[in-house]
Amino acid sequence: MCERKRRPTNDFDRRFGWFNPKSIPIFHILADNQSFHNSYQLAYVYLLKCRPYYCIMGTTTNDATITDAELELEDAPERRSTLARARVGIFYLPLALAGVMTVAFLPDLLATLVTGWTADGAAELGIHRLHVMGIATVVSVFLLGLFAQAYQPKKRVASMWGAFLVILAVTAGTVWYGVGRPEEVIPFFVVTGIALVAHPAGRTLFRRGDSYSPALLALVAVAAVPLIAFVATQLSLTTITSDSHATMGHYVMMAGLAIAPLAYGSFAALGFDGWRFASWLAALPMAYYGLMSIAFPAQAGSTGTMWGIAAILWAIAFVAIAEYSRVGPSGILRREIERSNYRDN
Q1: Residues 149 and 247 reside in one and the same domain
Q2: Which pTM does this prediction carry?
């Protein structure tokens, strides 16, 4: 039993038992400090180092036991540091592999974002002009969301989720309908999935930031109706085996193009970390598709001039609200997320 027992007077005592205050002169000063109460493990290590003979919860511990416990506590940060370094390595490896695959498979496709507007590009792409340029758009938006994780990934959570949902939708459609190029799509899905699982943000991947935007949520809801209808139409066309667009996977990729604004826009509107960048990635495919629909109204995949204009206006409104909500005082544009003290601590 401990010598000179005293009654527990605070939460610290109740957690760590009864101590001999004579052997720790500074104990009362530390115990009265609020920040010290939030650092129980630190206090535990202090007691281990300062007392050759102490009692916790009414049991006596000798020097040998103290030494073992102290070593275990001191080794814990090192083990956590090793695991953290391993996790970071696992996270950045798939990003590097994605970069290699991009260079190997995608330069010609991405180039059509520019060359597709030229006369030579039109002659080369023919009836697939809008589809190929649309595919290049959704691939570009996906890659931007993925490669943004290379720098300060904990601040790019929204774009990580957006990229994952886009490649998930495209991969599911490609595999389910047996069209397109699964040998190129599936590897990108695998590396994105690994990056998501090993993401440095850890559990905070599932936690929103400090605010969200009701106005952006409303815009996402408004866009969801025509975009989901567009996805349903494109997937229904995929079943037509005599259509070259279907067998080449164009309709599946166009469905992915419609999902991209919803994927990035939802996480941006909900206020996940990195929502500002994600809001731009949500607007980009809408604006580019709108331009293509206006420029190529007779091409397969175009929804005509009116819907093209509507897509461009939606993209402009989404970015404008996202940017202005950073400084605007309106609760409609951006609203703080209330959290309980228990959750914050």
Answers
A1: yes
A2: 0.76
pLDDT digits (tens, 9 = 90+) for 101-126: 999 999 999 999 999 999 999 999 99
What is the distance of C-alpha 77 from the center of its chain?
27
Q: Would you say residue 98 lies in a domain? A: no
Question: Rounded to an integer, what distance in angstroms lies between the CA atom of residue 93 and that of residue 130?
Answer: 34
Structure tokens at 59: 């049991």
54-56 and 59-61 strand pairing: antiparallel
Structure confidence by residue, pLDDT tens digits, 31-73: 455 444 444 444 444 444 444 444 444 444 454 555 555 555 5
The domain containing residue 252 runs over which residues? 106-344
Angle at 139 between CA 137 and CA 142, to 5 degrees: 110
- Dihedral sign for Cα atoms in the order 82, 85, 90, 91: positive
Q: Can you tell me the distance from the alpha carbon of 185 to that of 99, in angstroms, rounded to the nearest whole number? A: 14
231 and 287 co-located in one domain: yes
Of 45, 61, 77, the residue that ends a domain is 61
Domain count, the chain: 2
